[in-house]
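Dear colleagues,

For the upcoming journal club I promised to circulate an example of a predicted protein-ligand complex. I picked one with pyridoxal-5'-phosphate because it came up in last month's discussion. The inputs are reproduced below in full, followed by the predicted structure.
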Amino acid sequence: MIPLSVPHLAGNEWRYVKDCLDTGWISSAGAYVGRFEEALAAFTGAPHAVACMNGTAALHIALHLSGVGPGDYVLVPNLTFVASLNAVKYTFAEPILVDVDPHTWQMDMVLLREFLETETHVGENGCRLKADGRRIGAIMPVHVLGNMAEIRQCMELAAQFGIPVVEDATEALGSYYEGRHAGTFGTFGCFSFNGNKIISTGGGGMIITSDPALAQKAKHLTTTAKVSQEEYFHDEVGYNYRLVNVLAAIGLAQMEQLPQFIERKKQIDMYYRRELEGVGDISFQRIPTEVDPNCWLFTLRTEKMRGLLAFLNEQEIQSRPFWIPMNRLPMYAACRYVSAADQANAVYESSLSIPCSSGLTDAQLLEVTSAIKAFFNRP
Ligand SMILES: *Cc1c(COP(=O)(O)O)cnc(C)c1O
């Protein structure tokens, strides 16, 4: 079977993990956590990085430290992985869903502007929904598939309405907007190193920020809010959200290979766009000119999505439909949905992700495109 997107462990992973095992530093202390944080900070250009046990935990802490709490609203795109919204719920805030642009599949900033202008007012106590007086606690754009949301427009709106921004950049390590790395625009940016992401530690996450005090608070909160090294004195309700040393060791080895992974992902993206252009009714995600994407997960659109999905899986070419929009999940169905034409659902119903692991061979790529062409050329 040709898998959809799997980890590529071709560097120093064994050596660094063996070092952890040989020295006994497998858990929460040890040098690799700091080294992994430094490597990610250096790569993204963020002044501070704090490792977490996964991307969801990173988003939870980032929202919490942005001041989001019970009764607040957080603006999120309707087309995202469920973890974005779950993190909002963990702070006891409510998501407000915003529809996506039908071409880029990112949060629609025109709809967001209209909503903020017509349905909120800004007073001394922040930006509030006119209807019930509740606060808009944050905007959480998601950089879907390693393409990027219109982050400039988003930051302008956030400044105008006085709302913090937490970037869900979990899929966008190695993506840039006007030369600036994803996750460095908002108060916080969050990354994930889950099994299918562009680099993986099995499970893991990272928070980046330019604010040293917030970085220090994030480290504190993710490590049980323990104040002293010796005494068990904790000064607030903290979380055990740390990344363990043995996983950080894998992360450091993965960071060393990230530039090669991105290069290969871009080759795969170019190959698919060239080979599949004009095949059946296939169309692709639009990349804005300001964006240099990491090409994380190749996804195409066709009205024959269901048929193609079954056909490819039959040929042992692992393919997946896109996320079911959040407003169609039971726990989020009652959320306010800012939308004109429910583009999120149209994108969902016609989108398919196809194999694009950085370890794929050219022969495997040819096998994928040949199968897709065969599907569309069937009588
Ligand atoms: C992967 C992902 C997350 C969560 O990351 P985990 O490490 O799996 O917790 C959050 N949001 C989006 C959009 C993701 O793709």
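Two points we might discuss: The mean pLDDT is 97. The two ends are 26 Å apart (CA to CA).

See you all on Thursday,
B. R.
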